From TrEMBL:
This is Group II truncated hemoglobin. It comes from Caulobacter segnis. Keywords: Heme, Iron, Metal-binding, Transport. Pfam families: Bac_globin. Residues 137-159 are annotated as: Disordered.
């Protein structure tokens, strides 16, 4: 981190910390059973699913490493999606409901945070769809946890 970045909060801090992310995901997953596209996907959801996802996203957003310390990691999250056959319709519904829930629980609505938040939701849900397809191989080794910050991660135009 550059000296000028020393006072820049992480996305997790800006969002309100672990408690706010837990409230976001608990509220979101409480709404899922009433959503026609999402209810079947989460019909047999672990009762602690919201806390696990909140810990994962919090870690990705620069917060405590609670997901990793609880025995998770990026490979564990990939495995949760394998063989689930998620559709683009379900992905879009997940993102739309998440954005509605973010507003409902009072996540920051400044353009910078929301751009980073929406960017992560798009990136993460598209990877979930890819990883849920038939024939996707098990992750090899211990892939690093994603790290999401305020700026764009780069792209294929570099070179």
């Amino acid at each position: 981190m550059a000296a000028s970045d020393a006072n820049v909060p992480t996305l997790a801090e800006w969002a309100g910390g672990p408690d706010k992310l837990k409230a976001l995901f608990e509220t979101f997953y409480a709404r899922v059973p009433n959503h026609p596209a999402l209810a079947p996907v989460f019909a047999h959801m672990d009762p602690h699913h919201a806390q696990h996802v909140a810990a994962f996203v919090g870690e990705v957003f620069g917060g405590p490493k609670a997901y990793t310390e609880a025995g998770g990691g990026h490979a564990a999250m990939i495995r949760k999606h394998m063989g689930r056959h998620l559709t683009q319709e379900q992905r879009r519904a997940w993102v739309a409901l998440m954005l509605e829930t973010a507003d409902a629980v009072g996540l920051p609505d400044d353009p910078e945070f929301r751009a980073a938040f929406v960017g992560y939701l798009e990136w993460g849900t598209r990877l979930a769809v890819i990883n849920s397809a038939e024939g996707v191989p098990e992750p090899e080794g211990d892939p690093p946890m994603p790290v999401w910050g305020w700026g764009p991660p780069g792209g294929p135009w570099l070179g």
